[in-house]
Specification:
By secondary structure, the protein is largely without helices or strands. The protein has two domains: about 55 residues, no CATH class; about 210 residues, Leucine-rich repeat, LRR (right-handed beta-alpha superhelix) (Alpha-Beta Horseshoe), CATH 3.80.10. The protein contains three helices and 13 strands, in the order αββααβββββββββββ. The strands form three sheets. A nine-stranded mixed sheet has the order 3-4-5-7-9-10-11-12-13, with helices on one face. It has a two-stranded antiparallel sheet with strand order 1-2. The radius of gyration is 39 Å and the shape is elongated.
């Protein structure tokens, strides 16, 4: 009888002595509670051998829900220090444009004014934008500028003092704009390109070119000039005046009527085609030249 009772008691207690089933726990997922918004959970996954044999082998990494204050501390520590005032003043232009070894390239970025330039800038290429006006303030304290290119803008006006203080400026391109006149030009200019504008003869002052003793290349073609600009310097090698409204030239336009021995030996090319002028009617206008101008003679 005792044996039966013992057996029954053993059967009754066996379910109680069985080990509890193990709780499945993913050791790769760690939760740190304390964040107010569950949506702020950061998920981080690292993928290795992503396209090996056409399969993605994903390696699981911890999914962490950070405490709000701890996450804020980490973000603050990662913030990049603010640049100095000098760097900050120059940075916008060099982010919009490309600054490289003293050259600033601002081509086709739709700017409508000249951007602030790094003071060491020697070359500015601001072609094919929407600039309408140039002022003296645009190049204040820019002593190193040697080349400016504003081809293909909408420039209608240039203040007289805009370039006059740029003592090192050698090349200036204002081609394909809407200019009606030329401003005062810097003294060391070697090349001026103002073709494809709306410049008339009254838009060029009598002394505009007189003191430019280094000017070698002058491009004023495709404008509205009625005459050849006066007082062209001896230094000129190339003069492009084609496709204007020039109707006549005088003995003093290129030569000196009072000096028959005068030879203008530096000029290599004068283009006058596309003008309503018959060059053959003005033979004495070219006697000092080594080469006759290009244009119609009959």
């Amino acid at each position: 009888m005792k044996t039966v009772q013992s057996t029954l008691l053993l059967l009754l207690f066996m379910p109680l002595t069985q080990p509890a089933p193990s709780v499945q726990q993913d050791s790769h997922v760690i939760y740190e509670y304390g964040a107010d918004n569950f949506e702020e959970t950061i998920f981080s996954q690292d993928y290795e051998d992503k396209y090996q044999e056409g399969k993605n082998n994903k390696k699981k990494v911890p999914v962490i829900i950070p405490v709000e204050n701890r996450f804020q501390l980490q973000r603050d520590e990662a913030v990049t220090p603010l640049p100095s005032k000098k760097e900050n003043d120059e940075m916008p232009t060099c982010l919009l444009c490309v600054c490289l070894s003293g050259s600033v390239y601002c081509e086709e970025v739709d700017i409508d004014t000249v951007p602030p330039l790094p003071k060491e800038s020697a070359y500015l290429y601001a072609r094919f934008n929407k600039i309408k006006k140039l002022t003296a303030k645009d190049f204040a304290d820019m002593p190193n500028l040697r080349r400016l290119d504003f081809t293909g803008n909408l420039i209608e006006e240039i203040e007289d003092g805009t370039f006059s203080k740029l003592s090192l400026l050698e090349e200036l391109s204002l081609a394909e704009n809407k200019l009606l006149k030329l401003p005062v030009l810097p003294p060391k200019l070697i090349l001026l390109n103002a073709k494809n504008n709306k410049i008339k003869s009254r838009g060029i002052k009598a002394n505009t070119f007189k003191k430019l003793n280094k000017l070698s290349f002058l491009y004023l073609d495709h404008n509205a000039l009625e005459s050849v600009p006066p007082n062209l310097p001896e230094s000129l090698r190339i003069i492009h005046l084609q496709f204007n409204n020039i109707t006549s030239v005088t003995d003093d336009t290129f030569c000196k009527s009072n000096d028959t021995r005068y030879i203008r030996d530096r000029i290599e090319e004068i283009r006058l085609e596309g003008n309503p002028i018959i060059l053959g009617k003005h033979p004495n206008s070219f006697i000092c030249l080594k080469r006759l101008p290009i244009g119609s003679y009959f």
